[in-house]
Specification:
heterotetramer; A: about 325 residues; alpha/beta; Rossmann fold; seven-stranded mixed β-sheet; five-stranded mixed β-sheet; globular; B: Rossmann fold; two-stranded antiparallel sheet; 7 strands; binds thiamine diphosphate; binds magnesium ion; THDP-binding (chains A, D); thiamine pyrophosphate (chains A, D); oxidoreductase (chains A, D)
Chain lengths: ~325, ~350, ~350, ~325
C-alpha cells in the first residue's frame, strides 16, 4: 500500500506525539479539521490537549512556541501556507533564532511551512522561503524531497535544539508516493546523491530534485550524459563536502532552485563551491532559479516561471558544452 | 459589458432607506449570487484551477456596502466573500470570470487569480491573501487624498471576517485609521467560522463590536441576514463617514452558507447553526422584504434572474473563449521603473 | 549578592494590602530607583556603551507586579521601564550592572546589553526590542505549563507601554491569551509618550482600558503614581489570575519622569503635564503613604537608602572589575544542537 | 563647512518635499522631534501636513504607504531601525513588491532603513537587511556609502516607480563628512570604482566600502598591493558589468559585506561573477561577511563580528597569495 509525502508528515507528527510528551502541535484548523492539507488528521482525537487550534495570528503562534520551548516543550507549528509565515518573520528570526545565542537557553521549535508552487496557487500560496530564514543565524532549514526524508527529518527536527524551519513542498504532498516511510535515515546536515553521474552535478533540494532527475534522464537518453543529482536535504546547514566531492567527480555544477533568483540557496551553493572546490571546476558554476517575478497564478505562466526538466536540460547542455 | 459601465452614483443616504437604493442592493445580491453559482459549477466541473471562494449568505452585508460607494471616487478593498460588494460597487462580471478562468484580458492578466483582483486605479483594490493587510492600505489611499486636498466627500471601505480580526495587521490598520480619523468604514462579517475554526477558538469577547470603543471607532451591529437592516445600518455608517463623522466599525452577524472554498463541504458547521438565527439566506430574506414592502414583484424578480443568468453566462462564455497569457510574450519583470527594466 | 538569593514568596493577596507587602513593594521601588540613578550617572560619565533606559516614575506599577510574582515558578517578561518589577521579582542587581557594563559574567555574557537581559530558565524572560513580542511568549510558557499539568497556582505577567499597544504583536498576543484563558496579567503603563509621540498620535480611544472588553479580558484601571492603589489593584489582579480568574488587563496612568533614554532630555513633555496629576513621583507618594499609615519611619527610610546605595555601588564596582567577553574565546555560533555545531 | 551623511539624508528629504508635492514623510517620532536620528529635523515645521508621526505599527506604516502610492503619492517611510522593518516584512514583500506585477499600477515608496552595526547597539538595533528585501521580485535595494550618494540616491529613489529599500548605515551618520552634497550623481543601478587597483578587487557596499579602502591602504603600504574597491551602491539591481570589468583587470575578487554569512549580497556577487566572468578569475572568488551569530552588544564582540580592515587584509592576503 502506497504512502505519500503528506502521509509521512502526518505519521511523523503522530509518532512524535506518541513518543515524546513534550511535543505538541499548534496551528490554524489543525484540530478536528485536520489541517488545510490534512497533515494532522485525526491527531486531535488522540491527543486533545496537545493538538491545538490557533487564531489567525502567525506572530503570536511563534511567540507562543518560543515561550513553550523555553518551558521545555517541543512545539510543532503549522503555518497554513509558507507565505503566511511572513507575518511571523519577526518572531522567527528575532525571537526564536536569537534566543540560544543570547541566553544559552535553546528554543527547540519546528515550524512547518507548506511551500512551493502548484498550478493556480498564485503569488501568495506558492512561495519558497528557505533562503529568507536560512540567512539568519540560529536557524536550521530543511527541505525534504522524498517521502522517507519528509518522515525522518521531521522526527529529527523535533529532536534538534534549534528552531527548525521545515519546508514541505505542496506539489509533492499527494503526488509523491512510496511503499513505506523507511529510508536511510540520514541526519539533518547531510546531503544525498540521488542519482550518480560523471559529466555534471545538479545540486538542488525539495521538489526540484525530481525535476532534476527527469532532466538527467532526458539527457541520458539524448546523448548518454550522466548527470549526478545531489539532494541537499537541508539548506542550512548545507553539506558542502558532499557537493564538492560530487564536483570533484564531474567538474561541472548547476545549482538549481525554485525560489526567486536574487540570492538564495543557489548563490550560496555556488559561492561555497568556489570557496572550497574552485580548482575542481572545469566550467563556470551555473545557477537556475525561478524567474524574477511573483509566482504567477495561471498554470501556463507558473510552468514557465519555475525551472522545468526542459529548462534544466537547456542549462545543462550549456554547462556540458563549455 | 466589456467596458466599465456599471457604476453607482454617490449616495448620501439619510436614515430612511429609499426604494431605489434597496432595489439596487438586492439586485447586486442576486447578480453576485448568480455569478458565484456559475463559478462554483465551473470549479466543480474542473474548469477553474486553484480555488473558488463564494460569499453565499453574506451578500446583504457586502452589497449594502458596495452600493454606497462610488466607482472612481471612493476606495474599496473587498475580501474573500465580497462578490456582492464588488458588483454593487461597479466591478464588471467579466473581471471575475476572466480572472478565475485565467484570461489574459482580465485585469490580472493571469498573473493573479480568483479573488485577488481589482482595478486599483479606479478605486477597487486587489487583495493580497494576507488577512488584515488591506485596512491600512485603504487608509493610505484616504490619507493621500487628504494630503492632496481631495478627501472631501470620499470614503474608504473594507470587509474582513471574524478570523481576520486576530491578525496584527487588522489591529494596526484599525488603530491607524482611528488616529488619523479617516472617513472609512470597516465591516467585520462575523460568519462564525474562519475556515473550520469556530469563534470560540478565535476570540474571547462576547461580541466583536466590543472592540469599537477600544479603538475610538463608532460601532454598529447588524444582523447580516436582514437585508433592509444591513442596507440601512451600513448605508448610514457610510454616509456618516463620508460627511466627516470619522471611521466606522460595523459588525455583521451571520453564517457562512458555503464551505470555506468550493473544495470544502463545511461539514464541521453544526446543524443547529444552520437551522439557527443566522442560518437563513439573506437573499431569501431580501426578496421577501422587498415584496412585502411592495418594492418588488415576483415577475420582476424572475426577469432579473433571467437577466443575471444571461449576464453571468455571457461573462463566462466570453472569458472561456479568450486566450490565457502567453508565457513566451510575458515581460517577466516585476519592475516598473523604466530606467531599471531588464536589470536585476 | 552574586548568588540568586532575593526572592519573593508566592503571595496570594486578599483585597487588604498587608503592611509587609506594601513595604516590600516600596523597598523594590527604592532599590530600583537607586540602581537606575547609578546607571544613569555611569551613562552620562561615558561608562556605558549603547543606552540606558530607566523607569523613573513607573516604579510603583512595576514593583507592584513583580512583588506578586514568584521566582522560579511564575514567569515575567519585563520591558523598558521595569527595573522595579525585576528587583521585586528577584533579579540580582548584578545582572543589571553586569549587562549594562558588558561583564562576561552577566547573564547575557556581553552578547546582549542593557534591558535585553533575563534568566529565562528561572522565569525572567529576556526581552527582544520588538515591542509587543513578549505577550505571546509569556502565554506560551503558560500554555506549556498547562500541557504539562503544572499550571496550577502559576501566573504569567508582562508590562508594555502605550506605544506598544499599537503593535500587531501586542494584539495577537492579547487575543491569544484571552482565547486560551491563561492566568496572565498584562499591564499597560500608559506614560503618555512613546519616545516623543504623545498619546493622541498613538491611539484614539478615551482610555486604553476600553480595550479590555474587546478582548474578553477583565480590566482594571489604576493611578500609576499612587503606590498603595497600585499595590492593591495589581496585587488583586495577580491573585485573581492565579486563582483561575482568567487573564487580566491593567491600565496604569502615569507620566514618564525621564527622557525616553538617558540620551534624551524629554524636552517635548509639556510643563503642564509635568505639573499635572500624573507628574508626581510615585516614590515620593509611596514614602508618604507608608509614613502616614505608620508603616515606615524616616529613620528606616534613611537606613534603606544607605543599604540600597551601598548595594548598587557594590553591584557597579563588581561589574566594573570584571572582564568583558573575550572575542577570541567566543564560540561564535548561534546553534544549540550538538550534532550541528560547527556546520553552517 | 562640513556636512555629514545624516545631513545628506535630511537635506534630500527637504528637497524632495520642496520640489515634489507628492512626497510626504511618515514614521515614528519624525515630526516635531525630528526622528530618532534627526533625519527629519525641522521638516514638520515647514510641511506640517506632509511630515506625519506614525503609531508604533510598522505593518500599517507600509500598508498605508502602498495605499498612498496607489493614489499617486510618493511616501518616504522611516523605520526607526532597520531591525523593526521585520514587522513590516509582509507588507513590503507581499503588498508593495508584488503590486506592479500583479496590477500594472506602480507603488513608488521609499522605505528608509537605518541599518548596520554600531558599538553597543546589540542584536536588534544593528541589522543589515538588504539581502532579505533584495531576494523578492519587485524591490529596489540601495546602500549608499558616501555623503553624496546618500543625497542623490535618496532623491533618485523617490523618482523611481518601484518600492525602494533605502539602507542607510547608522555608523556613517555623523562620522562620514564631506564638503557638500554634490557628487557624480550616478544613477541607481550603477556601481562605482571607489579606488582603482590592479591586483585584486573588493566588491562591497555601504559602510564596508570605507573598511575596504582602509584595508587597501594597509596593503599598499605593506607590499605595494593595489587593491581596487568597487562600491555597488545598489545591491538590487546589481551592476555586474562594472564588477566584471574590474575583475577583468585584477583577476581576483573578494566580495565583502557586513550582513550575516548565509546567502546575501556577497554570494550573489560571487555567483554572478562566476556566471559572467569565470574565465577572468585567476583565483577562487572569495567572500567575507559578519560572523554567523546575531550582532553582539559588547563593543569588543561587535568589532570582531563584523569584517574589519584587519580581517579584510587577511582575506586579501590569502586571495593575493593564491
Ligand atoms: C495572515 C493569514 N493567515 C492565514 C491565512 C489563510 N486563510 C485564508 S482565509 C482563512 C480564514 C478566514 O476566516 P475569516 O476571516 O473569518 O473569513 P471568512 O472566510 O469566514 O469569510 C485563513 C485562515 C491568510 N489568508 N492570511
Ligand atoms: C516594533 C518596534 N518598533 C519600534 C521600536 C522602537 N522603540 C523603542 S521604545 C519605543 C517607544 C515605546 O513607547 P511605549 O510603548 O509607550 O513605552 P515607554 O517607552 O513609554 O515606556 C519605540 C518606538 C521598537 N522597539 N519596536
Ligand atoms: Mg469567518
Ligand atoms: Mg509610553
Amino acid at each position: 500500500m502506497a504512502v505519500t509525502y503528506i502521509d509521512a508528515i502526518r505519521d511523523a507528527q503522530e509518532r512524535a506525539l506518541a513518543e515524546n510528551p513534550k511535543v505538541f502541535l499548534y496551528g490554524q484548523d489543525i484540530g478536528k479539521f485536520g489541517g488545510a492539507f490534512k497533515a494532522t488528521k485525526g491527531l486531535q482525537e488522540q491527543w486533545p490537549d496537545r493538538v491545538i487550534d490557533a487564531p489567525i495570528s502567525e506572530d503570536a503562534m511563534i511567540g507562543m512556541a518560543v515561550g513553550a520551548a523555553i518551558e521545555g516543550m517541543r512545539p510543532i507549528i503549522e503555518m497554513q501556507f509558507a507565505d503566511f509565515s511572513s507575518v511571523a518573520f519577526n518572531q522567527i528570526v528575532n525571537q526564536a533564532a536569537t534566543h540560544y545565542y543570547r541566553t544559552g537557553i535553546p528554543v527547540p521549535i519546528v515550524v512547518r511551512l507548506p511551500s512551493g508552487g502548484t498550478p493556480g496557487s498564485g503569488p501568495f500560496h506558492s512561495q519558497s522561503m528557505e533562503s529568507i530564514y536560512a540567512h539568519y543565524p540560529g536557524t536550521v532549514v530543511v527541505t525534504p524531497a522524498t517521502v522517507a526524508d519528509a518522515h525522518s527529518m521531521l522526527l529529527q527536527a523535533v529532536d534538534l535544539d534549534d528552531p527548525v524551519i521545515y519546508c514541505e513542498h505542496k506539489f509533492l504532498y499527494r503526488w509523491l508516493k512510496s511503499d513505506n516511510f523507511e529510508g536511510d535515515n540520514l541526519p539533518i546536515g547531510k546531503a544525498r546523491i540521488t542519482r550518480s553521474g560523471k559529466h555534471a552535478t545538479v545540486v538542488t533540494y525539495s521538489a526540484m530534485v525530481h525535476e532534476a532527475v527527469r532532466a538527467a534522464e532526458i539527457l541520458y537518453k539524448e546523448g548518454g550524459w550522466e548527470i549526478e543529482v545531489v539532494d541537499l536535504r537541508s539548506v542550512k546547514p548545507l553539506d558542502i563536502d558532499t557537493v564538492v566531492a560530487s564536483v570533484a567527480r564531474t567538474g561541472r555544477i548547476l545549482a538549481l532552485g525554485e525560489a526567486f533568483p536574487w540570492g538564495g540557496v543557489t548563490s550560496e551553493v555556488v559561492s561555497r563551491v568556489c570557496a572550497e572546490g574552485f580548482h575542481l571546476l572545469d566550467a563556470p558554476p551555473m545557477r537556475l532559479n525561478a524567474k524574477d517575478t511573483p509566482v504567477p497564478y495561471h498554470p501556463k505562466l507558473w510552468a514557465m516561471h519555475r525551472p522545468t526538466p526542459e529548462s534544466i536540460c537547456e542549462a545543462l547542455r550549456n554547462l556540458l558544452a563549455y | 459589458m466589456t467596458e466599465q459601465t456599471i457604476s453607482t452614483p454617490n449616495k448620501d443616504l439619510s436614515k430612511e432607506l429609499s426604494k431605489e437604493h434597496a432595489r439596487d442592493v438586492f439586485r447586486a445580491m442576486l447578480r453576485a449570487r448568480v455569478l458565484e453559482i456559475k463559478l462554483s459549477n465551473l470549479y466543480k466541473a474542473g474548469k477553474i484551477v486553484g480555488g473558488v471562494y463564494i460569499g453565499k449568505g453574506q451578500e446583504a452585508v457586502s452589497a449594502s456596502l458596495g452600493a454606497c460607494l462610488t466607482w472612481n471616487k471612493d476606495v474599496f478593498a473587498p475580501l474573500i466573500r465580497d462578490q456582492a460588494g464588488r458588483t454593487a460597487f461597479g466591478e464588471d462580471p467579466l473581471d471575475a470570470t476572466r480572472t478565475y478562468l485565467g484570461s489574459a484580458k482580465g485585469p490580472m492578466r493571469g498573473r493573479d487569480g480568483n479573488l485577488h483582483r481589482g482595478r486599483p486605479a479606479e478605486g477597487l483594490l486587489a487583495m493580497i491573501s494576507h488577512l488584515g493587510a488591506a485596512v491600512a492600505q485603504v487608509g493610505g489611499v484616504l490619507l493621500a487624498k487628504r494630503i492632496k486636498g481631495e478627501l472631501d466627500g470620499c470614503v474608504g471601505a473594507t470587509c474582513v471576517g471574524d478570523g481576520a480580526t486576530s491578525t496584527g495587521a487588522f489591529h494596526e490598520g484599525l488603530n491607524f485609521i482611528a488616529v488619523e480619523r479617516l472617513p472609512m468604514v470597516v465591516i467585520i462579517a462575523d460568519n462564525q467560522f474562519a475556515y473550520s475554526t469556530p469563534n470560540d477558538r478565535q476570540y474571547a469577547c462576547d461580541d466583536l463590536i466590543d472592540r469599537a470603543k477600544g479603538y475610538g471607532l463608532e460601532g454598529h451591529s447588524v444582523d447580516g441576514t436582514d437585508m433592509l437592516e444591513c442596507a440601512t445600518v451600513i448605508g448610514n455608517a457610510v454616509a456618516k463617514a463620508r460627511s466627516g463623522g470619522g471611521p466606522q466599525l460595523i459588525v455583521a452577524k451571520l453564517l457562512r452558507l458555503s464551505g470555506h472554498g468550493e473544495h470544502d463541504d463545511g461539514s464541521y458547521v453544526a446543524t443547529e447553526l444552520q437551522e439557527g438565527r443566522y442560518g437563513r439566506d439573506c437573499n431569501d430574506v431580501g426578496k421577501q422584504q422587498l415584496i412585502e414592502k411592495g418594492w418588488l414583484t415576483e415577475l420582476e424578480y424572475s426577469k432579473w434572474m433571467l437577466e443575471f443568468n444571461a449576464e453571468a453566462q455571457e461573462a463566462v462564455a466570453v472569458a472561456q473563449r479568450e486566450d490565457g497569457p502567453n508565457p513566451y510574450k510575458e515581460e517577466w519583470s516585476a519592475i516598473a521603473s523604466p530606467s531599471l527594466k531588464g536589470l536585476q
